[in-house]
Amino acid sequence: MPGQGYQLPFTPAELFRNAVRAINDDVQHRRNTTFDKLPGNEQDAYLESLQNGNQNLNGVPAHTFFESLLALTIEGFFADPIYGGNKDMAAWKMIGFPGAYASFYHLVDQHGILFTRAPMSMGEDNRRMIHIQPVAAQPKAVGPNPVGATDKKGGR
Predict the structure, then answer these.
(1) Are residues 122 and 103 in contact, defined by beta-carbon separation less than 8 angstroms?
(2) What is the pLDDT of residues 90-143, one digit of tens each?
(3) Residues 22 and 59 in one domain
(4) How many Cβ atoms are within 10 Å of 63's Cβ, its own excluded?
(5) Average of pLDDT values for 35-46?
């Protein structure tokens, strides 16, 4: 139903896998190459066809895939670099965002002044190096059906 948000039966990962598989197949069939090898103007044209089209990408409407891709690209561009995007805090510098300073308390009552410090990431150390948390360091999944759990013989 329009206006009710995302209504497909796919998880975000399934949505991307299905759509990207269909795009790869389509480009291979039409151009005998892969999307990443297309010239930039042809990549742009293909993305515009997804934005405005109604192609079926393995069950994913093209415009739905495009809107999801655009939203996640923007999120990645403006996210804290600790998550792997926004290299060198370029997006934050572009818009003048100060980043993740622990405290702005001393500035709360100062209005109309320019904040000129360089952006700071949550994962930045005192040498201004950003440490991205590796996947292996993520906490283990818990619950009745944790992702990546293996079945053991003999029950629990």
Answers:
(1) no
(2) 999 999 888 877 677 777 788 888 777 788 887 777 677 777 765 555 555 555
(3) yes
(4) 14
(5) 96
Indicate the DSSP class of residue 138.
Answer: S
Q: Are residues 13 and 72 in the same domain?
A: yes
Q: Within this chain, do residues 132 and 85 fall inside the same structural domain, yes or no? A: yes
Sequence-separated (6 or more) residues with CB below 8 Å from residue 46: 23, 27, 35, 38
Query: Which has more confidence, 151 or 128?
Result: 128
Crossing angle of helices 62-78 and 40-52, rounded to 10°: 120
In a shared domain, residues 88 and 126: yes
- What is the rounded distance in angstroms from the CA atom of residue 26 to the CA atom of residue 20? 10
pTM over 0.85: no
Cα gap 109→50, rounded to integer Å: 48
**35: Cβ contacts below 8 Å, ≥ 6 apart:** 23, 24, 27, 43, 46
Residue 2 is classified by DSSP as T
Q: Measuring CA to CA, which residue among 109, 130, 131, 111 is closest to residue 119?
A: 130
